[in-house]
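We modelled the chain as a single entity of 206 amino acids. Its sequence is:
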Amino acid sequence: MRTVAVTWETAHQHGEAWISHHRLRYKMFVARQKWSVPNYRQIEYDEFDTPAATYILTVDEQHRALGSVRLVPTTRPYMVETLWPTLVNAELPHCASVWEASRFGCDRDLDAASRRSVVAQLILGCQEFGIAAGIAQYLGVMPIRIFKYVIAANGCPVVQAGPTLRLNGHETAAAYIDVSPSTLEAVRRRTGIRNAILESKLALVA
């Protein structure tokens, strides 16, 4: 199991990772959660899958995605701004230091220990990438229980940005997630993973 940062420009370097993550998203969000989102031949995608996006992917030995997060700079069109702007009380961000994090999830067919490991690596990967890229915060829309029991529980400070919305059967909100060396250290303490885990992060943000 390894964690990589993939863009459209580097997808060819990672075998099945990029396309398999779109298949995993179909499995997680369309097949399992019944989201009404674009899909084709069991591949899920939307208008925010553009060359501006970076994908943090935890993959197996065959480069098949076990978990994923999509990161998009708020200097480009992003999901919260386009679909749920009322979930943010203050002015919506449009700056290089705030990126949107979306499509966070892992394969539910994995055993519990493997799921915990995948989630830990995804969160660490996002922190490592964010620090290298000069990101101060991620903005995301997720069920509140995910913010509380997954993101915050693994050491990331989370600040809700506005009201709560009932979405796809879950109490959902937008929230900011801190990105910093101190948060990275907190996540490492919580997860017990002390070494850097993300490959090629510096080349991606150079």
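As a brief sanity check on the tokenised model: Residues 2-205 form a domain with the Aminopeptidase fold (CATH 3.40.630.30). The longest helix spans residues 112-133.
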